[in-house]
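Per-residue structure
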Amino acid sequence: MENKAVRKTKEFTPGNCPVVYCMNIIGGKWKPSIIHMIRTDRNRYSVLLKNITEISKQTLTNQLRELETDGIIERIIFPEIPPRVEYNITDYGKTLLPIIDSMYQWGRQHMKTDNKGYCDEK
Protein backbone atom coordinates (compact mmCIF):
# COMPACT_ATOMS: atom_id res chain seq x y z
CA MET A 1 0.00 0.00 0.00
CA GLU A 2 1.48 3.30 -1.09
CA ASN A 3 1.41 6.24 1.30
CA LYS A 4 1.19 9.42 -0.71
CA ALA A 5 1.66 12.54 1.36
CA VAL A 6 -0.97 15.16 0.64
CA ARG A 7 0.36 18.64 1.12
CA LYS A 8 -1.85 21.28 2.64
CA THR A 9 -0.06 23.87 0.54
CA LYS A 10 0.13 23.36 -3.20
CA GLU A 11 3.42 23.32 -5.04
CA PHE A 12 3.76 26.99 -5.66
CA THR A 13 6.70 28.72 -7.34
CA PRO A 14 5.72 32.18 -8.57
CA GLY A 15 8.31 33.43 -11.02
CA ASN A 16 10.29 30.24 -10.47
CA CYS A 17 11.63 31.70 -7.19
CA PRO A 18 14.35 29.62 -5.45
CA VAL A 19 13.28 30.90 -2.01
CA VAL A 20 9.72 29.70 -2.57
CA TYR A 21 11.07 26.36 -3.82
CA CYS A 22 13.07 25.97 -0.60
CA MET A 23 10.07 26.94 1.51
CA ASN A 24 7.98 24.30 -0.27
CA ILE A 25 10.49 21.73 1.01
CA ILE A 26 11.18 22.94 4.57
CA GLY A 27 8.32 25.36 5.13
CA GLY A 28 5.73 24.88 7.78
CA LYS A 29 5.63 25.05 11.51
CA TRP A 30 7.46 21.81 12.29
CA LYS A 31 9.76 20.68 9.45
CA PRO A 32 12.87 22.66 10.45
CA SER A 33 12.54 21.40 14.04
CA ILE A 34 12.02 17.82 12.87
CA ILE A 35 15.09 18.00 10.62
CA HIS A 36 17.17 19.48 13.44
CA MET A 37 16.04 16.84 15.91
CA ILE A 38 16.69 13.94 13.53
CA ARG A 39 20.18 15.23 12.87
CA THR A 40 20.83 15.33 16.65
CA ASP A 41 19.96 11.61 16.99
CA ARG A 42 16.38 12.12 18.16
CA ASN A 43 15.34 10.09 15.16
CA ARG A 44 12.53 7.81 16.32
CA TYR A 45 8.86 8.66 15.99
CA SER A 46 8.14 8.32 19.71
CA VAL A 47 11.13 10.49 20.64
CA LEU A 48 10.09 13.19 18.17
CA LEU A 49 6.54 13.11 19.50
CA LYS A 50 7.77 13.28 23.10
CA ASN A 51 10.10 16.20 22.39
CA ILE A 52 7.68 18.28 20.32
CA THR A 53 4.84 18.24 22.82
CA GLU A 54 2.69 20.67 20.81
CA ILE A 55 2.56 18.52 17.66
CA SER A 56 -0.22 16.01 17.03
CA LYS A 57 0.50 12.44 15.96
CA GLN A 58 -1.19 13.02 12.59
CA THR A 59 0.77 16.21 11.90
CA LEU A 60 4.08 14.54 12.79
CA THR A 61 3.23 11.61 10.54
CA ASN A 62 2.31 13.93 7.65
CA GLN A 63 5.45 16.05 8.05
CA LEU A 64 7.68 12.97 8.16
CA ARG A 65 6.01 11.57 5.05
CA GLU A 66 6.46 14.85 3.16
CA LEU A 67 10.13 15.04 4.14
CA GLU A 68 10.58 11.43 3.04
CA THR A 69 8.76 12.04 -0.26
CA ASP A 70 10.99 15.06 -0.92
CA GLY A 71 14.12 12.96 -0.27
CA ILE A 72 15.19 14.92 2.82
CA ILE A 73 14.95 11.99 5.22
CA GLU A 74 14.88 8.24 4.87
CA ARG A 75 12.79 5.85 6.91
CA ILE A 76 14.62 2.74 8.06
CA ILE A 77 12.61 -0.21 9.35
CA PHE A 78 14.55 -2.69 11.47
CA PRO A 79 13.27 -6.28 11.26
CA GLU A 80 12.94 -6.77 15.00
CA ILE A 81 10.13 -7.63 17.35
CA PRO A 82 8.72 -5.21 18.14
CA PRO A 83 9.54 -3.40 14.87
CA ARG A 84 11.76 -0.34 15.20
CA VAL A 85 11.69 2.59 12.80
CA GLU A 86 14.31 5.33 12.65
CA TYR A 87 14.68 8.35 10.42
CA ASN A 88 17.97 9.62 9.02
CA ILE A 89 18.93 12.67 7.03
CA THR A 90 19.80 11.74 3.43
CA ASP A 91 22.81 13.18 1.62
CA TYR A 92 20.39 15.47 -0.22
CA GLY A 93 18.84 16.46 3.13
CA LYS A 94 22.28 17.27 4.52
CA THR A 95 22.52 20.09 1.99
CA LEU A 96 19.78 21.83 4.04
CA LEU A 97 21.69 21.63 7.33
CA PRO A 98 23.53 24.96 6.89
CA ILE A 99 20.11 26.62 6.52
CA ILE A 100 18.79 24.86 9.63
CA ASP A 101 21.98 25.80 11.54
CA SER A 102 21.56 29.44 10.51
CA MET A 103 17.93 29.41 11.64
CA TYR A 104 18.98 27.90 14.98
CA GLN A 105 21.74 30.46 15.54
CA TRP A 106 19.52 33.39 14.54
CA GLY A 107 16.78 32.17 16.87
CA ARG A 108 19.14 31.69 19.82
CA GLN A 109 20.56 35.17 19.26
CA HIS A 110 17.16 36.89 19.11
CA MET A 111 15.05 34.90 21.57
CA LYS A 112 14.13 36.82 24.68
CA THR A 113 14.83 33.85 26.96
CA ASP A 114 17.81 31.67 27.69
CA ASN A 115 15.64 28.65 28.51
CA LYS A 116 16.43 25.54 26.55
CA GLY A 117 13.68 24.32 24.28
CA TYR A 118 13.01 21.07 22.51
CA CYS A 119 15.34 21.98 19.65
CA ASP A 120 18.38 22.23 21.87
CA GLU A 121 20.92 19.46 22.00
CA LYS A 122 20.17 16.56 24.34
Notes: The CA atoms of residues 66 and 104 lie 22 Å apart. The beta strands are 73-78, 84-89. The chain has a mean pLDDT of 85.
